[in-house]
Design goal:
Shape: globular
Largest sheet: 25 strands, mixed, barrel
Distance between the termini: 44 Å
Radius of gyration: 25 Å
Number of helices: 3
Helix content: under 10%
């Protein structure tokens, strides 16, 4: 469970910093969303998110994608792969993957009346090899999750709530075991804020977290490993603010994460501070007056690791991304050419010498959906993707 939580935390940092799309999807509850997305035991669930049902045209009934390779400038006659996708109300219900005309893999998806993903099946050459199920309460929070490999249960978890949204207990099971291998129990203050959480392994209490901002740095004496968790928000006169997550372990050592936002809730910086008070890694953003991201810098152990710059057109659409090396010299660039509807029609990548290393061209139908993608290596076509839509 500790490993799972670390993965969830790392992923949440990335998505919080880079995009709000995922956070405004149907999975409002973050920990459940990231558990579903990154801890599924089969590739089909990840595929569901990758294809992004939430960003499809809801009038699309089906989509067929075919991929052709080129050799010496000539397109080969037979498609190397093809994909057939079916949708209802913009949500994927079926995904078939073909190799050289033969079906190789199929994924099927079902949803409840509120549009929440409830069932997934993975078929390989016609045989069912994996399945996942989810049950929800009236607030669309996950009550039960089950994962199967062929006809054998791999894992499951059951969640109990206070009311409809606050988690009281989560039990995680392996295979058909009737006793949970991991359990989390939560308690809350009268105002609804979290008061305590406890982590059990095989029925034994392993760790306790107390949610309080009292006595910073004071050692917590207990029979189990106990940490104090504090969430603070400090506001500035210009309406910018800082969110601080502070963890004090059983020995009184403090670890912190600091998130700094501007008045428009755009993340300006993140800092991870260890028990010695050292910043182990951090990243920083700059924005223009329209809150377009102008730059991103990532540091690890005080050394600049990533340095990016972004440019936009008058419609606030990105038209260029620039990467710099450790010497602040351009290492590569991506230039995006857009049509009158601001759709990207060409993406050219340049190296540090200004030479074209790759190029991708796009075509769209009158609805703005992508119909063709052509991939070049230098000036030679290598791959062609074709997209055929069926509309309601």
């Amino acid at each position: 469970m500790k490993k799972v939580l670390l993965i969830i935390f790392a992923v949440s940092l990335h998505f919080t910093a880079s995009t709000q799309t995922i956070l405004t999807s149907n999975y409002q509850d973050r920990w459940q969303y990231y558990f579903n997305l990154y801890n599924s035991y089969t590739p089909g669930v990840a595929n569901l998110y990758k294809e992004g049902s939430w960003k499809r045209d809801k009038n699309v009934k089906s989509l067929k994608q075919t991929v052709f390779q080129y050799k010496k400038g000539k397109r080969l006659d037979v498609a190397t792969t093809s994909i057939d996708m079916s949708f209802i109300n913009g949500q994927m219900t079926d995904y078939k993957y073909y190799k050289k005309g033969q079906i190789h893999q199929e994924y099927q998806y079902k949803y409840n009346d509120n549009g929440f993903f409830t069932n997934y099946k993975d078929f390989k050459k016609g045989d069912l090899i994996a399945e996942e199920n989810r049950e929800y309460n009236d607030s669309n929070k996950v009550l039960k999750f089950e994962s199967f490999r062929k006809d054998k249960k791999e894992s499951s978890y059951v969640v109990q709530y206070m009311g409809y949204t606050k988690v009281l207990r989560q039990d995680n099971y392996r295979k058909d075991n009737t006793e949970p291998i991991y359990t989390w129990i939560y308690d809350y203050y009268e105002d609804g804020k979290k008061k305590m959480s406890e982590y059990y392994k095989n029925g034994k209490l392993k760790r306790r977290y107390l949610y309080t901002c009292d006595d910073e740095g004071k050692e917590v004496k207990d029979t189990v490993k106990t940490s104090k968790v504090c969430y603070l928000t400090e506001y500035n006169a210009d309406s910018s603010y800082v969110k601080i997550y502070r963890n004090t372990d059983s020995k009184g050592k403090i670890r912190k994460q600091r998130y700094t936002y501007n008045k428009n809730d755009k993340l300006l910086s993140y800092e991870n501070i260890n028990a010695k008070g050292e910043t182990t890694f951090s990243y920083f953003y700059e924005y223009d007056k329209n809150d377009n991201k102008l730059s991103y810098k990532y540091y690890r152990n005080s050394k600049l690791r990533v340095n990016e710059e972004f440019k936009y057109n008058t419609n606030n659409k990105i038209i260029e991304t620039i990467w710099y090396n450790k010497k602040s010299e351009i290492s590569s660039r991506n230039v995006y050419k857009r049509n009158e509807n601001d759709k990207i029609i060409e993406n050219i990548k340049y190296n540090s010498k200004g030479q074209i290393t790759s190029k991708i061209q796009y075509q769209y139908d009158e609805r703005g959906n992508k119909t063709k993608k052509i991939v070049y290596k230098k000036d030679e076509i290598k791959t062609e993707y074709n997209y055929i839509y069926e509309y309601i």
